[in-house]
Amino acid sequence: MHAAQTQARASYLKMQLQTTKNGTSMEVYVQKMRTIADNMAISLTPISDTELVSSILFSLDVDYDSLITSIYARESEISLEELHNVLLNHEAR
Fold this sequence. Notes:
Radius of gyration: 14 Å
Structural class: mainly alpha
Largest sheet: none
Low-confidence stretches: none
Shape: elongated
Number of domains: 1
C-alpha cells in the first residue's frame, strides 16, 4: 500500500512540475517550482537542477522566447540560481 501511495505522489508531483505555469511574480513561481522539486526528492524521485531548469524554461510564455533562445544558445548550462536571477531581471523590465 505504501509503495502505491509513494508512486502516486511521485506521479502527481511530476505532473505538477510539467503543468505549473507562471501566474504571479517570477520570485513566487521559481520558489513554487523548487518546492515541487524538493517534494519530489522527499518522495524518492529526485530531479536534477538541469531538469528543473528545463521544466521552468519549457513552462514560460512567449514573452520569454528571446530569453529562452539565448539561454539555449549558451556554451555552458545555466544554473538554477543564475536562471532565477535572469528571470527576475527580465521581469523587472
